[in-house]
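--- STAGE predict ---
source: upstream dedup step, 1 unique chain passed
mode: sequence only
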Amino acid sequence: MQNNFQLIKNIFINFILILIASVFSIFLLELFVNSFLPQFDPRGMVAYQVNDEGVPLLKYKNQSMRQWKNTGDYDVSVFSNELGLRNHKDIKTNYVDEIYVVGDSYSFGQGVEESERYSDQLEGLINKPIINISIPTDFQGYDRLINYAIKNGANIEELIIGVCMENDLRVYEDINKGDKKDSFIRESIHFIKIKLTEISALYNFVTSVIHGNRILSKVAKNIGIISKNESYDLASSSALMNSKKKTLLSSVKYLKIIREKYKIEPIILIVPSRSLWLGNNINQADEIHKTFIRMLLTENFLIIDPRESFEKGGAPMDYHFKYDGHWNAKGHQLVSSIIANQIVKNNLKKFD
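--- STAGE serialize ---
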């Protein structure tokens, strides 16, 4: 009996010693990476928050932050104004014929400099002030962002809503329903990864090395350590296909709510899903894309769809980052020219 107790005691002591040594080693490695590889330092990285009114915003205000991707796709600066929005303009200023833009991470300009976003390039092409209030979110978030901007002095009469076909389409009436256990696990893992990205230079270094090595990347994807970067499948997942009609009706309904609530005739900028060109659901994605646009046109929404222009050269993915999937600077430039051309052609009469 005493021998068993001694064995358990020794195992416990050894476990504690190994744990202390491991923590100390990680601490030293963290210090080393911070000191000699400053590009992986998480301090000053872009972070988001939701305020007391449920409005999604940049976490830090009146400062520049850094948006960096461990796949090597981009490393850009992000300025947050006094309202927590990525824009140097003061929305309280009485501009002439200003156009507001709201949308998710594509319209926010993830991975590109502020001056490279389609909204900022559009300003130079049509010689009108463009105020971008976009943040990674969905239609509910767009609604709250518009309301937030108005409360802070914005006079929104002309509006472009960037609709991401990958993650904006959903049954908004059921947004808080679903498999709570699965959602909790998924969100918990995502939260842990986000927090590690924000606080650990070592984590950023290790994930960057893994992403940069084909074999390590494949192994990590297979065991679920890193994402497979297949978010484009969201637009043609079985869940969406099985409830396609309900999903599309709910999404169009919410856009109508925004239009009626703020008495604005918005321009709907379609952000095509990558599943139109990648994956195993190309036909389904095509059906969803065309059906959604038909439904919007039936409700008399004005539409700008850059899909044809993306596909014209035969390489639509050239307008996206290799791993991250958002539009690169080339993609934003193309979209800005498409919007400008439609305005010049008077297809969008409200901008005359």
